[in-house]
């Protein structure tokens, strides 16, 4: 259980922060950028939830929890030492990726195929889901960059990749099952 009794610690005042294994790194390190952007993505999902109801809200809540799991995964380096840890670090799983894939398939079954690219917008929920999608894509790029420097859990990158796809399909659902999508018209304003 996490207990946060004191919110400020002053330990980051010199531009460093602690990772999940206790190591101190610069706040601008690739690892901190990756999990910090996952946190930013999580905040955008919170905004989207302001416009969601029922099953969509429940799915968004599950994603927010997953994103906290993902942040915990990314803030804990030294995957090769997981078996030596006093307690097993929280790692993303292929089951979480598979759940997203299943949800994407179910949502996509209700949609007509696209004949053009979709512009971010339409309903308030759809617009927020597009914001979720783009911040998630940035988190994915940063996680992929981190993976070129250090070992990270491959399921973390897969999850981010599927999540951005999930957001796109969910935005179409939020736009009256795609009927209210705002379509791109190439060269319309020339």
Characterise the protein shown here.
The chain has helices at 30-49, 54-74, 94-108, 124-147, 154-174, and strands spanning 16-18, 24-26, 118-119, 182-183. The strands form two sheets. It has a two-stranded antiparallel sheet. The model has no long low-confidence stretch (mean pLDDT 92). The protein is mainly α and 190 residues long. Helix content is 53%, strand content 5%. It has five helices and four strands.
List keywords for this structure.
single chain; 190 residues; mainly alpha; Hypothetical Protein Ta1238, Chain: A; two-stranded antiparallel sheet; two-stranded antiparallel ribbon
Distance N to C terminus: 58 Å
Strand content: 5-15%
CATH architecture: Up-down Bundle
CATH topology: Hypothetical Protein Ta1238, Chain: A
How do the helices and strands follow one another from N- to C-terminus? EEHHHEHHE
Strand order of the largest sheet: 1-2
List segments where confidence is low: pLDDT < 50 over at least 5 consecutive residues.
none
* Coarse shape: elongated
Number of strands: 4
Nearest-integer average pLDDT: 92
Task: Provide a count of the helices.
Answer: 5
**Total of domains:** 1
From the alpha carbons, calculate the radius of gyration and give it in angstroms: 18 Å
CATH superfamily: Cobalamin adenosyltransferase-like
Instruction: Decide which structural class fits the backbone.
Output: mainly alpha
EC number: 2.5.1.17
Family: Belongs to the Cob(I)alamin adenosyltransferase family.
InterPro entries: CblAdoTrfase-like, CblAdoTrfase-like_sf, PduO-typ
Protein name: Corrinoid adenosyltransferase
